[in-house]
Amino acid sequence: MPTETETREQRARERRTIRDHLRTGLELPGRLEISWAMGGGIVGGGPLVASVLMSGQASSSMLLTMTTLLFLIGGGLGLVHGALLGYLGRDTEMSSLEALESLVVGVFLAIPALVFAWLVAAWIAMTAPALSMGEAMVVGIVAAGWVVGAAICCWGAWQGWQALQNILDRWPAHRPGVVILAVVLVFLLVSFLSWQPEVWGTDMRVTGVGALLLAIGATIWIAAPITALALWLLRIRTGLEDEANGEMV
Asked: What pTM does this model have?
């Protein structure tokens, strides 16, 4: 059997540094953490702000403040949920420690990524002023922001889909959760599009685009954790009941 010193040396050789992660590529948990943080910030600070400005409920002088505030909220929620989903949806051959290491590296890499994402969100938020100005260069920059923002969100969606597939492979009993979330999303879409909710703390109502984004965000950030927790508790209770029945037999 290996001695304690040999075991410690083996663990040191297996431990990956940040440079190792960058050289070989960041694993799924870290990629999901970064992409969801960027996507959440872009959606909150970009299209949502643009829809409010285009509806005339706010002036362009509030653009920077609204973009920064909603970007921080969306980016923070995206970072937390991306990290949680990345940990639970890690590859089957990845250990918990390796997933945590990937998430730690992802936090450091998310800092410059979020700076870039804020610029993209600001470009998107300037949609209404750019259209009113009519300057071809400004409109081109805004259009490029929409394209880049959509690409980042698609990247995050793809990472999330991979993690969801891993979760379903690891816990087949969670498949009903997908059906539940689909029903919740449809219900919220119909409700929010029929009656546009107000932006919390203001007298402004979101447009159709904002209602769509809020429905998706509420499904991912509120309904998904509640559903996962309920199914997890149900699984524990079912396992305890099965164990008790086995003892009685």
From this structure: 0.71
Mapped to the 3 state alphabet, what secondary structure does the chain carry?
A: CCCHHHHHHHHHHHCCCHHHHHHHCCCHHHHHHHHHHHHHHHHHHCHHHHHHHHCCCCCHHHHHHHHHHHHHHHHHHHHHHHHHHHHHCCCCCCCHHHHHHHHHHHHHHHHHHHHHHHHHHHHHHCHHHHHHHCCHHHHHHHHHHHHHHHHHHHHHHHHHHHHHHHHHHHCHHHHHHHHHHHHHHHHHHHHHHHCCCECCCCCCECCHHHHHHHHHHHHHHHHHHHHHHHHHHHHHHHHHHHHHHHHHC
Cβ–Cβ under 8 Å, residues 231 and 174? yes
Q: What are phi and psi of 207, to 5 degrees?
A: -85, -175
Crossing angle of the two packed helices 136-170 and 28-45, in degrees rounded to 10: 140
Q: Which of 11-25, 104-118, 146-160 has the lowest mean pLDDT?
A: 11-25
C-alpha–C-alpha distance, residues 74 and 68, integer Å: 10
**Average pLDDT of the residues of the chain:** 79
**Residue keyed to tokens 């209602």:** 211
Answer yes or no: are the C-beta atoms of 11 and 128 closer than 8 Å.
no
Which residue has better confidence, 121 or 174?
Answer: 121
Residue located via tokens 């909603």: 70
- Please check whether residue 89 is in contact with residue 167, taking contact to mean a CB–CB distance below 8 angstroms: yes
* Cα angle: 121, vertex 58, 143; to 5 degrees: 35
* β-pair partners for 205: 198
If you search the block for the tokens 């994402």, which residue do you land on? 117
Q: Which residues pair with 198 in a beta bridge?
A: 205
116 token code pair: 């870039």
